[in-house]
Amino acid sequence: MQIIRTAHEMRAITRQIAAQTIGFVPTMGALHEGHLSLVRTAKEKCDTVIVSIFVNPTQFSPNEDFTRYPRTFDQDCELLKRANADFVFAPATEEMYPSGATTYVTVEGLSDRLDGKSRPGHFRGVTTIVSKLFHIVQPNIAFFGQKDAAQVAVIRKMVRDLNFPVEIVACPIVREKDGLAMSSRNVYLTPDERKSALALSRSLQKIETLFKNGNRNIEELISAGKQTLAEDSGVKLDYFSIVNPDTLEDIQNIDHPALVAVAAYVGKTRLIDNIVL
Ligand code: AMP
Questions:
Q1: What are residue 239's phi and psi, to 5 degrees?
Q2: What local confidence, expressed as pLDDT, does residue 272 receive?
Q3: Is 39 exposed, middle or buried (0-12, 13-18, 19+ CB in 10 A)?
Q4: Of ligand 1's atoms, which has the minimum distance to the CA of residue 181?
Q5: Dist. CA 174 → ligand 1 center (Å)
Q6: Ligand 1 atom at shortest distance from the alpha carbon of 148
Q7: What residues are annotated to the active site?
Q8: How far apart are CA 184 and CA 31, in angstroms?
Q9: CA distance linking residue 48 with residue 84, whole number of Å
Q10: Which residues have C-beta atoms less than 6 Å from ligand 1?
Q11: What is the distance, to the nearest Å, from the Cα of residue 194 to the centroid of all Cα atoms in its chain?
Q12: Is 83 within 8 Å of 94 (Cβ atoms)?
């Protein structure tokens, strides 16, 4: 604690505090290098970094993995300490959802595409909790992973539509050495499923190679991706789409950046991955 005796110094300190940039990284915990890369980027760009850990019940449907979602709070805090996070906000469920709460935030349209189509209500849960966290944390900049590309689009739209004074920064996907996108859900995979899971990144690489070789035919690109997935019998396709990264709508031509997004089940585990062409 500092004791200030002069007006000049007090004013200088107040200015300094007011000018500080607060960076925010919302997570559901079970942290891995993907999450930590967001924290490190936040640390580079902001004076103070706040990380939230909250497994948000409203973004899970009743048949999903809310109760068995990995919870590794002590280990998460160790990792965050090492990454120099300044604060961890880890509220109880009742803190975020007092009983009787019936107000939700919905981004119409976007919330029904890609993962929102496969997981009805998912993005309503995401935008509701992220709004609440933004109100509580009051960040200047919030950091999200490109891994959840549809989520980034939905959050950006929400921030724009509701005039949140928050800048959204999307950070690149962090992968295991063999290409698998890091995910808290990878711990569910058996060794065989872990091998099958590589089909997702492989299918995206296949599309990227075709694209680099000049193929601009959306149908051909998608069917090459689907075919690569189908080669592994342990993988069940959910969706394979090439869309506008902002609107998440299917595109006919690749004349702007295009988001190639895949979701598939490996055993009972639903995995997602994407690239931008
Ligand atoms: P989650 O804890 O799964 O809700 O993720 C919290 C944040 O970390 C989200 O913005 C995710 O997109 C991001 N994230 C998760 N996995 C990765 C990854 N492999 N690379 C980059 N960011 C990620």
A1: -145, 155
A2: 98
A3: buried
A4: 19
A5: 9
A6: 12
A7: 35
A8: 7
A9: 10
A10: 27-28, 34-35, 37-38, 144-145, 147-148, 171, 173-174, 181-184
A11: 21
A12: no
Partners of 271 in the beta sheet?
A: 264
Choices 3.20.70.20, 3.50.50.60, 1.10.10.10, 3.40.50.620: CATH for 2-171 = 3.40.50.620
Residue 84 CA to residue 147 CA, distance in Å, equals 23
Q: Tell me how many helices (H) and strands (E) the chain has.
A: 9, 8
Those residues with Cβ within 8 angstroms of residue 159's Cβ, 6 or more apart along the chain or in another chain: 166, 168
Supply the mean pLDDT for the chain.
Answer: 96
Pairing, β 259-266 against β 269-276: antiparallel
Torsion sign over Cα 111, 117, 118, 121: positive
| CA 246 / ligand 1 centre spacing (Å) | 18
Please give the C-alpha separations between residue 73 and each of 161, 170, 273, in angstroms, as whole numbers.
Answer: 34, 24, 25
Q: Where are the domains of the chain?
A: 2-171, 184-276
Tell which one of 40, 143, 148, 182 to mutate to probe ligand 1, the residue whose CB is within 8 A of the most ligand atoms.
148
Which one-letter DSSP state was computed for residue 174? P
Burial class (CB in 10 A: 0-12, 13-18, 19+), 257: exposed
CATH: 3.30.1300.10, 3.40.50.1820, 3.30.470.20, 3.40.605.10. Which one for 184-276? 3.30.1300.10
Q: What is the mean pLDDT of residues 92-118?
A: 96
160-208: per-residue pLDDT in tens? 999 999 999 999 999 999 999 999 999 999 999 999 999 999 999 999 9
